[in-house]
Amino acid sequence: MNEQWMVQSWKTDPCYAEYGVDGGMCSIRYYLSEIENWCPPLPANSTFKPITHKASWNKNLTQLLSLINQSESKDNYAWIMDRIERSLWHLWSDAVVSFQRDKEFLLDNKMRSKRKILIYLGFLSKKSGFRIQQSATAGGPLGELVQWSDILSALFTMGHELIVTSEYEELVGLVLCVCVCVCVCVIFIFRSVFFLCFFTSSLYLLSFVFSASWFVCFCLLRIIDTFGTEAPYNSLTYSKKFKNLKTAWGGQELDLRQFYTMFPHSPDNSFMGFVVEQHLNTTESRSIERKQQALVYGKSLYMWSGMQDYLSVISKHVEIHATVFTNSNEAHLLPSFVHNHGILSGPDLHRLLSESKLFIGMGFPYEGPAPLEAIAAGCVFINPKFNPPHSSLNTKFFKGKPTARELTSQHPYTEHFISNPNVFTVDISNLKEVERVVKQALQLIDTNKVKPYLPFEFTHKGMLQRLNAYMEHQDFCTPHKNIWPPVRAVRLLVSESGQSCKDACWSRNMTCEPSHFRRINKPQTFEHLFSSSSSAARPYTGEAELHHPSVSEKLGTCYLQGDNLLFSCVSRTEGYLRVCPCRNFLRGQIALCPDCL
């Protein structure tokens, strides 16, 4: 591509004009230099700027529902539409009003770029076989539906243009339409379009649809990945070397931050999250008298298997309530002391939570929204501890998932980010300890020492703030241009031997920031950190290792990371001290820092 071609052909696609090309040499040179990177950078005093479209807040519920309702599989969206329409929409609108008057969040005082976002929810396809919509009304898991409801609501409220589908045939046509200028105006697509799809199974379909354009478009993807993806599974080359790393979900070779998780369990991935549902305002909640009762977390009968003794101990102190889906001939399978309400609507469930003192976990489901809803309603969550931790090595549920993460409890977020007095993590096989914890929790509630608590990152405002920051700053297509979060937010630390960067940063009240691994992966970093060492830093020329950049405790040798796909906050190896990029974070919003906004 050169100036002469641009002079003659800039009108061949509207995307050139979108970036300010008007046929003049000034605009053409800016485009070739600053947008396509074909020419050297312009002088720093250049003031030419491309045209951008501003996103405006959108509170039109009818428009959003109409957009979702256009899908051929619209029946599968019933639960999502119900949550958006009846439960939470007015709260999204309230959050917008709050942002407009609260200058602290800086969302209404800046130019927010408007994006076109193609959202592919393949798990709701008629052909997927998941039947998530049907199971949602019969005690099945709701986490994915909750998260997608909130993603759609947040992106629409932020003023972006959404295209939603769950059918492969629709996807093919939409991709061809949206990507019409991929070959002739690559950067326009990079800056204006994103693709959101459900978990990595959808990537194979997308790679087929994109065909030859796949390696151009893959940086646009944002994958909603509930439990996360780790470096050794993501690298196709590395995962092929080890039998236990082979999984149908791995080998995608994306930037790990392109995977968006339900909870902030791994700094390597981006934390998307969701909004904790609240149907009662503060006044209504305070007017409801708490009874000597507990609500059990488990809506399907199979979750209750083997729980009789555990629940019997608790039933000596509180009345046990449940919301289990049962057929008429299955009610007797629950313990006789359980008062079962069946599946309740959102408002009725939250009223029951507000009447209860305890919310009882039984070990499954893992990492769902319900414990946060219970804590926000003022319940104490009894969180089952796992010893040994549950992972893909010992738990069938995690087999094949692209992560070796170890869950130390049913709900690690509440264990590590909230804790006492709102959460008690306990070994439920130790019945004496269970009884002690139940008594302690009830005493705290009865003496008004437990208050309803909801972390900011799970509120409407928190999700809007976080998602807007991602939309404005995350760039996986030209990451070398603007590193985010900025350098001033990051501090370099050296871990203890065998310690991960995640744990090393956390021990100093910071979080690992993976976007800075490439920046620090150079000899100068080691020279600065180990100025007294006589060992010279050298690139790792053999097999890349997950714990690099690091220092061998035994040899004193410094190692650089030889494969960018293997940068990892969570990896650790005994005998190595890791070099870690750590950053501070906002209270109640771990994904962001004061300098991130």
Automatic annotation (TrEMBL):
PANTHER family per the UniProt record, alphabetical: ALPHA-1,6-MANNOSYLGLYCOPROTEIN 6-BETA-N-ACETYLGLUCOSAMINYLTRANSFERASE (PTHR15075:SF2), ALPHA-MANNOSIDE BETA-1,6-N-ACETYLGLUCOSAMINYLTRANSFERASE (PTHR15075)
Keyword Glycoprotein part of the UniProt annotation: yes
Pathway: Protein modification; protein glycosylation
Top-rank taxon: Eukaryota
Transmembrane region(s): 171-190, 202-224
Protein family (similarity comment): Belongs to the glycosyltransferase 18 family.
Catalytic activity: N(4)-{beta-D-GlcNAc-(1->2)-[beta-D-GlcNAc-(1->4)]-alpha-D-Man-(1->3)-[beta-D-GlcNAc-(1->2)-alpha-D-Man-(1->6)]-beta-D-Man-(1->4)-beta-D-GlcNAc-(1->4)-beta-D-GlcNAc}-L-asparaginyl-[protein] + UDP-N-acetyl-alpha-D-glucosamine = N(4)-{beta-D-GlcNAc-(1->2)-[beta-D-GlcNAc-(1->4)]-alpha-D-Man-(1->3)-[beta-D-GlcNAc-(1->2)-[beta-D-GlcNAc-(1->6)]-alpha-D-Man-(1->6)]-beta-D-Man-(1->4)-beta-D-GlcNAc-(1->4)-beta-D-GlcNAc}-L-asparaginyl-[protein] + UDP + H(+)
The Glycosyltransferase family 18 catalytic domain, residue ranges: 15-582
Lineage of the organism: Eukaryota, Metazoa, Spiralia, Lophotrochozoa, Annelida
Cellular-component GO terms for this entry: Golgi apparatus; Golgi membrane
GO MF annotation terms: alpha-1,6-mannosylglycoprotein 6-beta-N-acetylglucosaminyltransferase activity
Keywords: Glycoprotein, Glycosyltransferase, Golgi apparatus, Membrane, Signal-anchor, Transferase, Transmembrane, Transmembrane helix
Annotated compartments: Golgi apparatus membrane
Name recorded for this polypeptide: alpha-1,6-mannosyl-glycoprotein 6-beta-N-acetylglucosaminyltransferase
Organism: Helobdella robusta
Top-level enzyme category: transferase
Keyword Membrane: yes
Example GO BP: protein N-linked glycosylation
EC number: 2.4.1.155
Topology term for the membrane: Single-pass type II membrane protein
